[in-house]
Amino acid sequence: MQVKFVFHILSMVIFGTAITAILPLLADAISGQHEWVVFAVSAAAMGFFGGACLLATHDGRSKGISLRTAFLLTGLSWLVLPLFAALPFLDLGLSYADAIFEATSGITTTGSTVIKGLDELPPGILLWRSILQWIGGIGILVMAVVLLPFMRIGGAQLFRTESSDTSEKVEPRWSILMSNILLVYLFLTVLCGIIFWLLGMTAFDAICHAMATISTGGYSTHDASFGFFDSNALQWTATIFMLSGAVPFYVYIKAARGNTKALISDSQVRVLVLLLVVVSVAMAVWLSRHNHVSFGDALTLTFFNVTSVVTTTGFASVDYTLWGTGAVGAFLILTFVGGCSGSTSGAIKIYRFQVLAQVISAHIKRLTSPHRVVPTHFNGRPLPDDVAISVLAFLTMFVATIALCTVALTFMDLDLITAYSASVTAITNVGPGLGPVVGPAGNFSSLPDGAKLLLAFAMILGRLEIFTILVIFDRGFWTD
Questions:
Q1: pLDDT digits (tens, 9 = 90+) for 314-355
Q2: Which residues contact 96 (CB under 8 A, 6 or more apart)?
Q3: Under a CB-based contact definition with an 8 Å cutoff, are residues 207 and 195 in contact?
Q4: pTM for the whole thing?
Q5: Is residue 160's pLDDT more than 80?
Q6: Alpha-carbon torsion, ordered 4, 134, 117, 316, to 10 deg
Q7: Is there a contact between 340 and 269 (Cβ–Cβ < 8 Å)?
Q8: What angle do CA 214, 237, 345 make, to 5 degrees?
Q9: Cα–Cα distance between 133 and 141 in angstroms, integer?
Q10: Which of 24, 113, 139, 157 is within CB 3.0–4.6 Å of 124 for a Cys-Cys bond?
Protein backbone atom coordinates (compact mmCIF):
# COMPACT_ATOMS: atom_id res chain seq x y z
CA MET A 1 0.00 0.00 0.00
CA GLN A 2 1.24 3.51 -0.81
CA VAL A 3 1.30 4.73 2.80
CA LYS A 4 4.11 7.24 2.20
CA PHE A 5 2.20 8.70 -0.74
CA VAL A 6 -0.94 9.00 1.43
CA PHE A 7 0.91 10.98 4.10
CA HIS A 8 2.49 13.15 1.42
CA ILE A 9 -0.95 14.15 0.14
CA LEU A 10 -2.19 14.65 3.72
CA SER A 11 0.74 16.98 4.33
CA MET A 12 -0.23 18.98 1.26
CA VAL A 13 -3.81 19.26 2.58
CA ILE A 14 -2.60 20.50 5.98
CA PHE A 15 -0.17 22.97 4.39
CA GLY A 16 -2.93 24.23 2.10
CA THR A 17 -5.19 24.73 5.14
CA ALA A 18 -2.44 26.81 6.74
CA ILE A 19 -2.34 29.07 3.69
CA THR A 20 -6.14 29.36 3.76
CA ALA A 21 -5.97 30.58 7.38
CA ILE A 22 -4.36 33.77 6.06
CA LEU A 23 -7.78 34.95 4.82
CA PRO A 24 -9.44 35.19 8.28
CA LEU A 25 -6.13 36.61 9.58
CA LEU A 26 -6.48 39.47 7.10
CA ALA A 27 -10.18 39.89 7.95
CA ASP A 28 -9.33 40.42 11.62
CA ALA A 29 -6.32 42.62 10.91
CA ILE A 30 -8.25 44.89 8.54
CA SER A 31 -11.10 45.27 11.04
CA GLY A 32 -8.65 46.05 13.86
CA GLN A 33 -9.27 42.84 15.82
CA HIS A 34 -6.36 41.46 17.83
CA GLU A 35 -7.55 37.91 17.13
CA TRP A 36 -5.47 37.95 13.94
CA VAL A 37 -2.63 36.71 16.15
CA VAL A 38 -4.55 33.47 16.75
CA PHE A 39 -4.73 32.76 13.04
CA ALA A 40 -1.07 33.69 12.61
CA VAL A 41 -0.05 31.17 15.27
CA SER A 42 -2.44 28.52 13.95
CA ALA A 43 -1.26 29.02 10.37
CA ALA A 44 2.37 28.80 11.49
CA ALA A 45 1.72 25.57 13.41
CA MET A 46 -0.15 23.96 10.52
CA GLY A 47 2.38 25.23 8.00
CA PHE A 48 5.36 23.93 9.99
CA PHE A 49 3.83 20.50 10.51
CA GLY A 50 2.53 20.20 6.96
CA GLY A 51 5.76 21.50 5.44
CA ALA A 52 7.96 19.19 7.50
CA CYS A 53 5.86 16.16 6.57
CA LEU A 54 5.91 17.22 2.92
CA LEU A 55 9.68 17.21 2.87
CA ALA A 56 9.89 13.95 4.80
CA THR A 57 7.51 12.08 2.48
CA HIS A 58 8.64 13.50 -0.89
CA ASP A 59 10.30 10.98 -3.22
CA GLY A 60 9.91 12.78 -6.56
CA ARG A 61 8.09 9.94 -8.26
CA SER A 62 4.62 10.18 -9.80
CA LYS A 63 2.25 7.52 -8.51
CA GLY A 64 -1.06 6.16 -9.65
CA ILE A 65 -3.67 5.71 -6.98
CA SER A 66 -4.80 2.18 -6.10
CA LEU A 67 -8.14 1.22 -4.58
CA ARG A 68 -6.71 0.72 -1.08
CA THR A 69 -4.79 3.97 -1.30
CA ALA A 70 -7.99 5.80 -2.28
CA PHE A 71 -9.81 4.42 0.76
CA LEU A 72 -6.97 5.25 3.15
CA LEU A 73 -6.36 8.74 1.75
CA THR A 74 -10.05 9.68 1.77
CA GLY A 75 -10.66 8.39 5.29
CA LEU A 76 -7.55 9.90 6.86
CA SER A 77 -8.10 13.27 5.19
CA TRP A 78 -11.41 13.80 6.98
CA LEU A 79 -10.17 12.27 10.24
CA VAL A 80 -6.94 14.29 10.45
CA LEU A 81 -7.86 17.70 9.01
CA PRO A 82 -10.33 18.68 11.80
CA LEU A 83 -7.55 18.15 14.38
CA PHE A 84 -5.64 21.05 12.80
CA ALA A 85 -8.58 23.16 11.62
CA ALA A 86 -9.78 23.22 15.26
CA LEU A 87 -6.81 25.30 16.45
CA PRO A 88 -8.28 28.81 15.84
CA PHE A 89 -11.43 27.91 17.81
CA LEU A 90 -9.39 27.43 21.01
CA ASP A 91 -9.09 31.23 21.31
CA LEU A 92 -12.84 31.36 22.03
CA GLY A 93 -12.28 29.48 25.28
CA LEU A 94 -13.57 26.23 23.84
CA SER A 95 -12.17 22.90 24.96
CA TYR A 96 -10.27 20.93 22.34
CA ALA A 97 -13.25 18.56 22.10
CA ASP A 98 -15.53 21.52 21.36
CA ALA A 99 -13.06 22.87 18.82
CA ILE A 100 -12.83 19.50 17.06
CA PHE A 101 -16.64 19.27 16.99
CA GLU A 102 -16.93 22.74 15.42
CA ALA A 103 -14.21 22.09 12.85
CA THR A 104 -15.58 18.66 11.95
CA SER A 105 -19.08 20.08 11.61
CA GLY A 106 -17.70 22.68 9.23
CA ILE A 107 -15.54 20.40 7.09
CA THR A 108 -18.31 17.79 6.79
CA THR A 109 -20.77 20.61 5.92
CA THR A 110 -23.02 19.54 8.80
CA GLY A 111 -23.60 22.94 10.37
CA SER A 112 -24.10 21.93 14.01
CA THR A 113 -22.38 24.30 16.41
CA VAL A 114 -21.23 24.64 20.01
CA ILE A 115 -20.59 28.38 19.73
CA LYS A 116 -22.96 30.93 21.26
CA GLY A 117 -23.03 34.66 20.63
CA LEU A 118 -22.13 34.55 16.94
CA ASP A 119 -23.24 38.17 16.49
CA GLU A 120 -20.45 39.37 18.80
CA LEU A 121 -17.61 37.29 17.37
CA PRO A 122 -14.75 38.87 15.37
CA PRO A 123 -15.04 38.47 11.59
CA GLY A 124 -12.04 36.17 11.30
CA ILE A 125 -13.56 33.25 13.20
CA LEU A 126 -16.88 33.62 11.36
CA LEU A 127 -15.08 33.62 8.03
CA TRP A 128 -13.02 30.59 9.12
CA ARG A 129 -16.21 28.61 9.81
CA SER A 130 -17.55 29.46 6.35
CA ILE A 131 -14.25 28.65 4.66
CA LEU A 132 -14.15 25.22 6.31
CA GLN A 133 -17.59 24.45 4.94
CA TRP A 134 -16.66 25.70 1.49
CA ILE A 135 -13.49 23.56 1.46
CA GLY A 136 -15.49 20.58 2.71
CA GLY A 137 -18.05 21.09 -0.03
CA ILE A 138 -15.51 20.96 -2.87
CA GLY A 139 -13.81 18.01 -1.17
CA ILE A 140 -17.08 16.11 -1.10
CA LEU A 141 -17.71 16.92 -4.76
CA VAL A 142 -14.35 15.48 -5.78
CA MET A 143 -14.96 12.38 -3.68
CA ALA A 144 -18.52 11.88 -4.96
CA VAL A 145 -17.74 12.37 -8.65
CA VAL A 146 -14.23 10.92 -8.92
CA LEU A 147 -13.54 8.55 -6.01
CA LEU A 148 -16.81 6.97 -4.84
CA PRO A 149 -17.72 5.44 -8.24
CA PHE A 150 -14.19 3.98 -8.27
CA MET A 151 -14.70 2.57 -4.75
CA ARG A 152 -18.14 1.10 -5.58
CA ILE A 153 -19.69 2.30 -2.30
CA GLY A 154 -23.41 2.39 -1.67
CA GLY A 155 -24.35 2.10 -5.32
CA ALA A 156 -22.09 5.00 -6.35
CA GLN A 157 -20.63 2.79 -9.12
CA LEU A 158 -23.85 3.65 -10.91
CA PHE A 159 -22.27 7.00 -11.80
CA ARG A 160 -19.00 5.77 -13.28
CA THR A 161 -20.47 6.39 -16.72
CA GLU A 162 -20.90 10.04 -15.74
CA SER A 163 -17.30 10.54 -14.64
CA SER A 164 -14.98 8.00 -16.21
CA ASP A 165 -16.58 5.81 -18.82
CA THR A 166 -15.20 6.32 -22.33
CA SER A 167 -18.54 5.93 -24.09
CA GLU A 168 -20.26 8.90 -22.46
CA LYS A 169 -18.06 10.89 -20.14
CA VAL A 170 -18.13 14.48 -19.06
CA GLU A 171 -14.37 14.81 -19.47
CA PRO A 172 -11.71 12.32 -20.64
CA ARG A 173 -9.39 13.02 -17.69
CA TRP A 174 -10.35 13.24 -14.03
CA SER A 175 -8.02 16.21 -13.46
CA ILE A 176 -9.94 18.22 -16.07
CA LEU A 177 -13.19 17.05 -14.52
CA MET A 178 -12.12 18.31 -11.08
CA SER A 179 -11.03 21.64 -12.57
CA ASN A 180 -14.42 22.09 -14.21
CA ILE A 181 -16.22 21.16 -10.99
CA LEU A 182 -14.18 23.78 -9.13
CA LEU A 183 -15.01 26.42 -11.75
CA VAL A 184 -18.75 25.67 -11.46
CA TYR A 185 -18.47 25.71 -7.66
CA LEU A 186 -16.70 29.08 -7.73
CA PHE A 187 -19.17 30.56 -10.20
CA LEU A 188 -22.22 29.54 -8.13
CA THR A 189 -20.60 30.85 -4.93
CA VAL A 190 -19.76 34.24 -6.46
CA LEU A 191 -23.18 34.57 -8.08
CA CYS A 192 -24.93 33.67 -4.82
CA GLY A 193 -22.81 36.16 -2.85
CA ILE A 194 -23.48 39.00 -5.30
CA ILE A 195 -27.24 38.45 -5.20
CA PHE A 196 -27.23 38.23 -1.39
CA TRP A 197 -25.36 41.56 -1.29
CA LEU A 198 -27.71 43.23 -3.77
CA LEU A 199 -30.70 42.10 -1.69
CA GLY A 200 -29.45 43.79 1.47
CA MET A 201 -26.81 41.66 3.18
CA THR A 202 -23.53 43.28 4.14
CA ALA A 203 -20.63 42.23 1.92
CA PHE A 204 -19.20 40.13 4.76
CA ASP A 205 -22.50 38.35 5.48
CA ALA A 206 -23.01 37.78 1.76
CA ILE A 207 -19.60 36.12 1.36
CA CYS A 208 -20.00 33.89 4.42
CA HIS A 209 -23.58 32.85 3.62
CA ALA A 210 -22.77 32.22 -0.04
CA MET A 211 -20.04 29.77 0.94
CA ALA A 212 -22.34 28.09 3.46
CA THR A 213 -25.23 27.93 0.98
CA ILE A 214 -23.47 26.41 -2.05
CA SER A 215 -21.61 23.93 0.16
CA THR A 216 -24.99 23.07 1.79
CA GLY A 217 -23.22 23.62 5.10
CA GLY A 218 -25.49 26.02 6.95
CA TYR A 219 -23.11 27.97 9.18
CA SER A 220 -24.43 31.49 9.71
CA THR A 221 -22.81 34.61 11.11
CA HIS A 222 -25.80 35.16 13.43
CA ASP A 223 -27.37 33.16 16.25
CA ALA A 224 -30.77 33.54 14.59
CA SER A 225 -29.36 31.91 11.43
CA PHE A 226 -31.19 33.07 8.29
CA GLY A 227 -34.04 34.40 10.42
CA PHE A 228 -31.80 37.37 11.28
CA PHE A 229 -32.39 38.95 7.86
CA ASP A 230 -36.21 38.84 7.89
CA SER A 231 -36.40 39.04 4.10
CA ASN A 232 -38.57 36.89 1.85
CA ALA A 233 -36.41 37.77 -1.15
CA LEU A 234 -33.28 36.53 0.60
CA GLN A 235 -35.03 33.33 1.68
CA TRP A 236 -36.18 32.55 -1.87
CA THR A 237 -32.70 33.28 -3.21
CA ALA A 238 -31.14 30.99 -0.62
CA THR A 239 -33.71 28.32 -1.46
CA ILE A 240 -32.68 28.37 -5.12
CA PHE A 241 -28.96 28.22 -4.34
CA MET A 242 -29.36 25.50 -1.70
CA LEU A 243 -31.09 23.47 -4.39
CA SER A 244 -28.28 24.28 -6.83
CA GLY A 245 -25.78 22.84 -4.37
CA ALA A 246 -27.84 19.64 -4.06
CA VAL A 247 -27.92 19.02 -7.83
CA PRO A 248 -25.26 16.78 -9.48
CA PHE A 249 -22.45 19.07 -10.56
CA TYR A 250 -21.67 17.01 -13.63
CA VAL A 251 -25.02 18.09 -15.13
CA TYR A 252 -23.84 21.71 -14.95
CA ILE A 253 -20.78 20.75 -16.96
CA LYS A 254 -22.94 18.93 -19.50
CA ALA A 255 -25.23 21.95 -19.77
CA ALA A 256 -22.26 24.29 -20.24
CA ARG A 257 -21.05 22.06 -23.08
CA GLY A 258 -24.29 22.35 -24.99
CA ASN A 259 -26.54 19.70 -23.47
CA THR A 260 -29.20 22.18 -22.35
CA LYS A 261 -31.56 19.39 -21.27
CA ALA A 262 -29.05 17.86 -18.84
CA LEU A 263 -30.72 19.32 -15.75
CA ILE A 264 -34.27 18.34 -16.60
CA SER A 265 -33.35 14.95 -18.06
CA ASP A 266 -31.60 13.70 -14.92
CA SER A 267 -34.04 11.54 -12.97
CA GLN A 268 -32.51 12.49 -9.61
CA VAL A 269 -33.08 16.17 -10.24
CA ARG A 270 -36.68 15.63 -11.33
CA VAL A 271 -37.50 13.56 -8.24
CA LEU A 272 -35.76 16.04 -5.91
CA VAL A 273 -37.62 19.07 -7.31
CA LEU A 274 -40.94 17.22 -7.30
CA LEU A 275 -40.41 16.18 -3.67
CA LEU A 276 -39.58 19.73 -2.57
CA VAL A 277 -42.58 21.23 -4.37
CA VAL A 278 -45.12 18.67 -3.13
CA VAL A 279 -43.92 18.68 0.48
CA SER A 280 -43.48 22.46 0.69
CA VAL A 281 -46.90 23.27 -0.78
CA ALA A 282 -48.62 20.66 1.40
CA MET A 283 -46.91 22.00 4.53
CA ALA A 284 -47.73 25.59 3.51
CA VAL A 285 -51.42 24.72 3.28
CA TRP A 286 -51.26 23.02 6.67
CA LEU A 287 -49.28 25.89 8.24
CA SER A 288 -51.58 28.60 6.94
CA ARG A 289 -54.64 26.80 8.32
CA HIS A 290 -53.28 25.77 11.70
CA ASN A 291 -50.92 28.63 12.58
CA HIS A 292 -52.81 31.58 11.09
CA VAL A 293 -50.03 32.47 8.64
CA SER A 294 -50.83 33.94 5.24
CA PHE A 295 -50.40 31.41 2.45
CA GLY A 296 -47.69 33.52 0.76
CA ASP A 297 -45.62 33.75 3.94
CA ALA A 298 -46.26 30.07 4.62
CA LEU A 299 -44.91 29.14 1.18
CA THR A 300 -41.74 31.15 1.82
CA LEU A 301 -41.23 29.53 5.21
CA THR A 302 -41.90 25.97 4.06
CA PHE A 303 -39.91 26.13 0.82
CA PHE A 304 -36.91 27.61 2.63
CA ASN A 305 -36.89 25.29 5.63
CA VAL A 306 -37.90 22.13 3.74
CA THR A 307 -35.20 22.77 1.13
CA SER A 308 -32.70 23.49 3.89
CA VAL A 309 -33.37 20.16 5.59
CA VAL A 310 -33.69 18.01 2.47
CA THR A 311 -30.47 19.41 0.95
CA THR A 312 -28.82 18.98 4.40
CA THR A 313 -27.88 22.67 4.52
CA GLY A 314 -29.25 23.30 7.99
CA PHE A 315 -30.21 26.98 7.78
CA ALA A 316 -33.32 27.92 9.73
CA SER A 317 -35.48 31.01 9.29
CA VAL A 318 -37.74 30.09 12.22
CA ASP A 319 -37.94 27.38 14.86
CA TYR A 320 -40.10 25.00 12.81
CA THR A 321 -40.48 22.63 15.77
CA LEU A 322 -43.03 25.16 17.09
CA TRP A 323 -45.30 24.52 14.08
CA GLY A 324 -46.76 21.45 15.75
CA THR A 325 -46.04 17.74 16.16
CA GLY A 326 -47.02 17.02 12.56
CA ALA A 327 -44.34 19.38 11.28
CA VAL A 328 -41.76 17.89 13.66
CA GLY A 329 -42.51 14.41 12.34
CA ALA A 330 -42.30 15.60 8.73
CA PHE A 331 -38.96 17.33 9.24
CA LEU A 332 -37.57 14.25 10.98
CA ILE A 333 -38.38 12.12 7.94
CA LEU A 334 -37.02 14.77 5.54
CA THR A 335 -33.71 14.72 7.42
CA PHE A 336 -32.98 11.29 5.92
CA VAL A 337 -33.58 12.22 2.29
CA GLY A 338 -30.64 14.30 1.07
CA GLY A 339 -29.97 15.70 -2.38
CA CYS A 340 -28.47 14.04 -5.46
CA SER A 341 -25.32 12.02 -5.89
CA GLY A 342 -22.46 14.18 -7.14
CA SER A 343 -23.65 17.17 -5.11
CA THR A 344 -22.52 18.74 -1.84
CA SER A 345 -25.50 17.42 0.15
CA GLY A 346 -25.40 14.48 2.54
CA ALA A 347 -27.89 11.93 3.96
CA ILE A 348 -29.18 8.91 2.00
CA LYS A 349 -29.61 10.72 -1.33
CA ILE A 350 -32.33 10.52 -3.96
CA TYR A 351 -30.85 7.86 -6.21
CA ARG A 352 -30.76 5.29 -3.42
CA PHE A 353 -34.48 5.71 -2.85
CA GLN A 354 -35.02 5.29 -6.58
CA VAL A 355 -32.97 2.10 -6.64
CA LEU A 356 -34.69 0.82 -3.49
CA ALA A 357 -38.14 1.44 -5.01
CA GLN A 358 -37.22 -0.62 -8.06
CA VAL A 359 -35.79 -3.44 -5.94
CA ILE A 360 -38.95 -3.59 -3.83
CA SER A 361 -41.19 -3.47 -6.89
CA ALA A 362 -39.24 -6.28 -8.57
CA HIS A 363 -39.36 -8.38 -5.42
CA ILE A 364 -43.13 -7.97 -5.10
CA LYS A 365 -43.62 -9.06 -8.71
CA ARG A 366 -41.45 -12.13 -8.20
CA LEU A 367 -43.50 -13.24 -5.19
CA THR A 368 -46.27 -14.43 -7.50
CA SER A 369 -44.00 -15.18 -10.50
CA PRO A 370 -40.71 -16.57 -9.11
CA HIS A 371 -39.13 -17.04 -12.54
CA ARG A 372 -40.21 -13.69 -13.91
CA VAL A 373 -37.49 -11.42 -15.28
CA VAL A 374 -38.09 -7.88 -14.06
CA PRO A 375 -35.81 -5.31 -15.75
CA THR A 376 -34.65 -2.37 -13.64
CA HIS A 377 -33.29 0.91 -14.98
CA PHE A 378 -31.80 4.17 -13.79
CA ASN A 379 -31.60 7.25 -16.01
CA GLY A 380 -32.47 5.10 -19.01
CA ARG A 381 -29.72 2.54 -18.41
CA PRO A 382 -30.01 -1.05 -17.07
CA LEU A 383 -29.36 -1.26 -13.34
CA PRO A 384 -26.35 -3.53 -12.58
CA ASP A 385 -26.98 -6.22 -9.95
CA ASP A 386 -24.15 -5.05 -7.69
CA VAL A 387 -25.72 -1.61 -7.40
CA ALA A 388 -28.81 -2.97 -5.63
CA ILE A 389 -26.61 -4.96 -3.23
CA SER A 390 -24.46 -1.91 -2.50
CA VAL A 391 -27.50 0.27 -1.83
CA LEU A 392 -29.08 -2.29 0.52
CA ALA A 393 -25.77 -2.74 2.36
CA PHE A 394 -25.41 1.02 2.76
CA LEU A 395 -28.97 1.47 4.04
CA THR A 396 -28.47 -1.35 6.56
CA MET A 397 -25.27 0.19 7.92
CA PHE A 398 -26.83 3.66 7.85
CA VAL A 399 -29.67 2.58 10.14
CA ALA A 400 -27.36 0.50 12.33
CA THR A 401 -24.96 3.41 12.78
CA ILE A 402 -27.78 5.69 13.90
CA ALA A 403 -29.00 3.04 16.36
CA LEU A 404 -25.55 2.44 17.86
CA CYS A 405 -24.83 6.16 18.14
CA THR A 406 -28.21 6.80 19.79
CA VAL A 407 -27.68 4.07 22.40
CA ALA A 408 -24.15 5.32 23.12
CA LEU A 409 -25.44 8.87 23.67
CA THR A 410 -28.16 7.71 26.05
CA PHE A 411 -25.43 6.16 28.21
CA MET A 412 -23.94 9.66 28.39
CA ASP A 413 -27.13 10.88 30.11
CA LEU A 414 -28.77 12.42 27.05
CA ASP A 415 -32.53 12.07 26.80
CA LEU A 416 -33.81 9.83 24.01
CA ILE A 417 -35.10 12.65 21.74
CA THR A 418 -31.81 14.55 21.98
CA ALA A 419 -29.72 11.38 21.54
CA TYR A 420 -31.70 10.13 18.55
CA SER A 421 -32.06 13.43 16.71
CA ALA A 422 -28.41 14.36 17.37
CA SER A 423 -27.34 11.00 15.91
CA VAL A 424 -29.57 11.43 12.88
CA THR A 425 -28.50 15.01 12.19
CA ALA A 426 -24.81 14.11 12.57
CA ILE A 427 -24.89 11.11 10.25
CA THR A 428 -27.08 12.85 7.68
CA ASN A 429 -24.98 16.05 7.97
CA VAL A 430 -28.07 18.25 8.34
CA GLY A 431 -27.15 20.40 11.36
CA PRO A 432 -30.10 21.10 13.68
CA GLY A 433 -31.79 18.22 15.49
CA LEU A 434 -35.03 18.15 17.47
CA GLY A 435 -35.99 19.24 20.96
CA PRO A 436 -34.93 22.20 23.11
CA VAL A 437 -31.27 21.12 23.38
CA VAL A 438 -30.12 20.47 19.80
CA GLY A 439 -33.14 21.78 17.85
CA PRO A 440 -33.15 24.72 15.41
CA ALA A 441 -33.20 27.16 18.33
CA GLY A 442 -30.72 25.13 20.40
CA ASN A 443 -27.01 24.44 20.50
CA PHE A 444 -24.71 21.44 21.04
CA SER A 445 -22.55 23.21 23.66
CA SER A 446 -24.27 21.61 26.67
CA LEU A 447 -23.47 18.07 25.54
CA PRO A 448 -20.60 16.27 27.34
CA ASP A 449 -17.23 16.13 25.56
CA GLY A 450 -17.58 12.40 24.92
CA ALA A 451 -20.88 12.99 23.12
CA LYS A 452 -19.36 15.75 20.98
CA LEU A 453 -16.43 13.57 19.92
CA LEU A 454 -18.76 10.68 19.13
CA LEU A 455 -20.99 12.97 17.06
CA ALA A 456 -17.95 14.39 15.28
CA PHE A 457 -16.97 10.85 14.28
CA ALA A 458 -20.57 10.19 13.22
CA MET A 459 -20.47 13.29 10.99
CA ILE A 460 -17.39 11.90 9.24
CA LEU A 461 -18.99 8.46 8.91
CA GLY A 462 -22.08 9.96 7.29
CA ARG A 463 -20.12 12.33 5.08
CA LEU A 464 -17.88 9.53 3.75
CA GLU A 465 -20.74 7.09 3.13
CA ILE A 466 -19.81 4.94 6.18
CA PHE A 467 -17.90 2.18 4.35
CA THR A 468 -15.00 4.47 3.44
CA ILE A 469 -14.12 4.59 7.14
CA LEU A 470 -15.22 1.08 8.18
CA VAL A 471 -13.06 -0.63 5.56
CA ILE A 472 -9.94 0.85 7.19
CA PHE A 473 -10.77 -1.05 10.40
CA ASP A 474 -10.96 -4.35 8.53
CA ARG A 475 -7.88 -6.48 9.23
CA GLY A 476 -7.93 -7.83 5.71
CA PHE A 477 -7.51 -4.28 4.41
CA TRP A 478 -3.99 -4.25 5.84
CA THR A 479 -2.99 -7.88 5.42
CA ASP A 480 -4.42 -9.15 2.08
A1: 898 888 888 888 888 999 999 999 999 888 998 999 999 998
A2: 86, 90
A3: no
A4: 0.90
A5: no
A6: -130
A7: yes
A8: 30
A9: 12
A10: 24
